[in-house]
Structures are given as structure tokens and as C-alpha cells.
Specification:
With about 350 residues, the chain is α/β, with parallel strands linked by helices. The protein has two domains: about 5-285, Alpha-Beta Complex (Spore Coat Polysaccharide Biosynthesis Protein SpsA, Chain A), CATH 3.90.550; about 285-330. The chain contains twelve helices and 15 strands. The chain has helices at about 15-25, 40-50, 65-80, 100-105, 135-140, 155-160, 205-220, 225-235, 245-250, 255-260, 285-315, 320-340, and strands at about 5-10, 30-35, 55-60, 85-90, 95-100, 115, 120-125, 140-145, 150-155, 165, 175-180, 180-185, 185-190, 195, 265-270. Strands 3-2-1-4-9-6-13 form a seven-stranded mixed sheet, sandwiched between helices. Strand 11 and strand 12 (about 180-185) form a beta hairpin. Helix 7 (about 205-220) packs across helix 8 (about 225-235). The radius of gyration is 24 Å and the shape is globular. It starts with a strand and ends with a helix.
Length: about 350
């Protein structure tokens, strides 16, 4: 049973080593598409490649994050290239967990169907050991509830190798192009797996996640699908200092469905097996702020490039040229009348 994991990352230095070592224990290949990481993410991945782990590191140079397009391309290309039985699309903060042997669980699934894997949010708390750099060791509590809308999809070769099949934004569904529309492909429930999700891990990670992801969502025009990012963006803008209590509050209500519930969020202990780390370091403040400035500068440059392209197109359009000529002629006439 051959399983290939695909992921797209940006600035995941605090969790990427744990993510790779954890999944390398049971997948045959890990394909990582890095999008403009300014932290140590590419360095850590390269060190793991040198160790001999089955990793392929790709670089995405697009201005936009383009997750759906990149992940859909990886889905199809890796299915055709490796002929893997299963393609596993995950984010770098998501960990596939099985109640039993992972390979046996994959073998038991019907390869003619996609599967939805339930996802549970793990929550940092004030009692966590803040000196532990391994997030899987430090964060061991999760929200009891989950919702079907939060599930992620696993794709079999029979679907992943079809060039009309692609992933939805966030890897929640498989879709098929049919004429001028898209149809969601039905999927079964994966009862032997769940995904452990670690979206909030420390203050610096959360700040970068929210300060940059929300403007990106707005720029892509999909901010209506990512309202939680806008809410937490505004939250961070109005709080000068975040405490462990803040992190617990944000993580436990990370799902919009949880935010709609008035009752308290129940947490339970459910620690994952945590691999030992070699290359992950404690987050230094100086390096963190230097990387943040780099990211801000890159985003500003990308906006400037897009604005310049847009202005260039507008300035060359017939309507623009006609308007300028009319304005110039009108200005000349007015000036002549004034002089006379």
C-alpha cells in the first residue's frame, strides 16, 4: 500500500520537523511546496532530506498563495508519477492519527472512493510547558467536538489520476469539472482515522498567521470564506500583549462553528506520539521580527508590482487614452479662454 503526502507551506519552522518526522513513519513520500518562507522552514526540510527521509522540496514563486491550484496540481502529478494508492493532502499543522496500524487502515479502505477524515483542534493552555519546543509534546489537549464541515479529504489513485478532478480550497473536498461547472465528488467517512490540528501554537506563530493570512485572503477575494482570520486579525490589532489564556481562547474557538456555540468548549487530554526533533529551535525575538519585516516588505513589493501592472494596462487601454485626450483638449480650451 503506497501513500504519498502533499502539502504547501509558508513559514512553518516551529512545526515542520515534527510534521515530517511524524508522517515519515508511515508514508512513502512527502512532497512539500514552499511558498516564499522567510524563516528556517526550507533549511529544516533540506536537513531532513540530507538525513535520507523521502522528501521532495518544491518552490512556488507565485505572488498569491494559490493553495487550491498548487495542491490540485500536486494531487494529479504525484498520482501519475508515483501511482500511489492514496494521496494525502494535509497542511503542515495537521497530523493523521489512526486507532491502529496506519498501513492496515489504508488497506481496509475502498480505493474506488474518496474519504472524509474528521479533524479535531488541539489547544494550548496556560499549564503547558512553555519551554518545550516540540508542539506535539507541549500541546496535548483537544476540543471534544468536531463537525463534518471541518473534515479533510483523502484521495485514491482512481480519482487523483483523473485530470478533471481537483481539490477545494483547504483540501476539504474533491471536485470534478463538468462542462462549465464543478461537482463535489461524494466521499465516505473514514472511521479509522482522524486529523489532529494545531492551528495555534505560540504567540509569534499566531501573530504571523493572522497578520499575513487575512490580508492575503482579502487580496484573493475569498475573505468571505475565511472570516475567522478577519476576526482574529482585529483581535490581535486591539491587544498589545497576548497571554497563554488568550491563546487557549483563540484556539478553542478557532472553528467558526465553535464560535457560534454559547456553551463552554470542553477539552480532553489526547496526546500524540511526538517524534524527537533535531533542527527545530526556540523562537528568538530578534529573528522573528526580522523575518516579519521581510514578509511585510515582500507583500508590499508584490502589491506594488500588481499595481504597476494594473496601471500599465489601464494607461494603454483605448478608453483611458480617449479619456486623457478629452481631458487634455478640454484643459487646453479652458486655458486658452482664461488667457484671452
Amino acid at each position: 500500500m503506497k501513500v504519498v503526502l502533499i502539502t504547501m507551506v509558508n513559514n512553518e519552522e516551529d512545526i515542520i520537523e515534527a510534521f515530517i518526522r511524524y508522517h515519515a513513519a508511515f508514508v512513502d513520500k512527502i512532497v512539500i511546496a514552499d511558498h516564499h518562507s522567510s524563516d528556517r522552514t526550507p533549511e529544516i526540510v533540506s536537513q531532513l532530506i540530507e538525513e535520507g527521509l523521502p522528501i521532495e522540496l518544491l518552490t512556488v514563486q507565485t505572488i498569491d498563495f494559490c493553495q487550491r491550484e498548487v495542491m490540485s496540481s500536486l494531487l494529479y502529478k504525484q498520482a501519475c508519477l508515483t501511482r500511489a494508492d492514496w494521496i494525502l493532502p494535509l497542511d503542515a499543522d495537521e497530523f493523521l492519527v489512526s486507532d491502529g496500524d496506519v498501513q492496515a487502515s489504508f488497506t481496509s479502505m475502498d480505493q474506488n472512493h474518496a474519504y472524509y477524515v474528521p479533524r479535531y483542534v488541539y489547544v494550548p493552555t496556560p499549564v503547558d510547558n512553555q519551554h518545550e519546543i516540540n508542539p506535539l509534546k507541549r500541546i496535548q489537549k483537544r476540543v471534544v467536538r468536531t463537525y463534518p464541515e471541518l473534515s479533510k479529504v483523502i484521495a485514491p489513485y482512481t480519482l487523483a489520476s483523473n485530470d478533471s478532478v481537483y481539490l477545494s480550497m483547504g483540501n476539504h473536498h474533491l471536485l470534478r469539472k463538468e462542462h462549465d461547472s464543478s461537482v463535489r465528488i461524494p466521499a465516505l467517512d473514514a472511521t479509522l482515522f482522524y486529523i489532529a490540528h494545531f492551528p495555534v501554537r505560540n504567540v509569534h506563530q499566531l501573530e504571523k498567521k493572522m497578520f499575513f493570512n487575512w490580508p492575503k485572503s482579502v487580496a484573493r477575494g475569498i475573505h468571505g470564506q475565511s472570516t475567522h482570520r478577519g476576526e482574529w486579525f482585529e483581535y490581535l490589532m486591539t491587544h498589545d500583549h497576548l497571554t497563554p489564556e488568550h491563546l487557549q481562547q483563540i484556539a478553542s474557538r478557532y472553528s467558526s462553528l465553535e464560535r457560534q456555540m454559547n456553551n463552554p468548549v470542553e477539552l480532553i487530554d489526547d496526546p500524540l506520539h511526538a517524534p524527537e526533533l533535531r533542527y527545530t529551535k526556540a523562537d528568538g525575538s530578534d529573528e522573528y521580527y526580522k523575518n516579519m519585516v521581510k514578509d511585510i516588505s515582500r507583500i508590499a513589493l508584490n502589491i506594488a508590482k500588481e499595481l504597476a501592472t494594473y496601471k500599465g494596462k489601464i494607461s494603454q487601454s483605448p478608453q483611458r487614452i480617449s479619456t486623457l485626450r478629452h481631458y487634455c483638449n478640454s484643459s487646453t480650451d479652458q486655458h486658452s479662454e482664461h488667457v484671452s
